[in-house]
Amino acid sequence: MVIPVEGENIQIHSYKHDGNIHRVWDETKILKATRHLVIGGNDRTLVTESDGRTWITREPAICYFHTDLWFNIISMIREDGIYYYCNLGSPYVYDQGAIKYIDYDLDIKVFPDMTYSLLDEDEYEFHRMQMKYPDVIDHILKRNVDKLVYWIRQRKGPFSPDFIDIWYERFLMYRS
């Protein structure tokens, strides 16, 4: 299994269940990579949507991907605290210089005070019917929403108090 090399820049590609590209982040610096885990950092990176529209991220972010989890976590570092955007999606694969995963619409937004909101349930239901998500995917995603909420409440993984400080410092070392 090929894994990204620490210090290299890679892209992040999210797809939809039907195989169509959803979104591409142009550049993310690899901060840690193992057979099961990738932690990356980016700041003001170009993002391209499936319809060709582009935008640039506004703040530094630390990205967390795992091969055994049906979610990934983007921690956005803002002046008023850390905001987390958690995408429910397939475990990632690393292929041709990019982290790739299937985005399953459901998201959890976590605020600096660790309150959170489940987002896009209507979009999930629409795509579940339109793209005929198998029941097994539906069950896996609902279990992973519960797991993610547990991680948030327990301050586990990227939600732990020191996680972002440690990885953001590493990201800044690459920028100097």
UniProtKB/TrEMBL annotation:
Entry keyword annotation includes Aminoacyl-tRNA synthetase: yes
Residues annotated as catalytic: R23 (proton donor)
Needed co-factor(s): Mg(2+)
Enzymatic reactions: a ribonucleoside 5'-triphosphate + H2O = a ribonucleoside 5'-diphosphate + phosphate + H(+); a ribonucleoside 5'-diphosphate + H2O = a ribonucleoside 5'-phosphate + phosphate + H(+)
Annotated binding of Mg(2+) 1, by residue: N87, D103, D107
Keyword terms of this UniProt record: Aminoacyl-tRNA synthetase, Hydrolase, Ligase, Magnesium, Metal-binding
GO MF, one annotated term: ribonucleoside triphosphate phosphatase activity
InterPro entries: DUF402, FomD-like_sf, Ntdp-like, SA1684
Binding-site residues, Mg(2+) 2: D105, D107, D120, E123
Documented EC number(s): 3.6.1.15, 3.6.1.6
Pfam families the UniProt entry points to: DUF402
Enzyme class of the recorded protein, top EC level: hydrolase
Signal peptide stretch: none
Domain DUF402: 18-156
Function: Has nucleoside phosphatase activity towards nucleoside triphosphates and nucleoside diphosphates.
Xref: PANTHER family: PTHR39159, UPF0374 PROTEIN YGAC
Protein family per UniProt: Belongs to the Ntdp family.
Protein name: Nucleoside triphosphate/diphosphate phosphatase
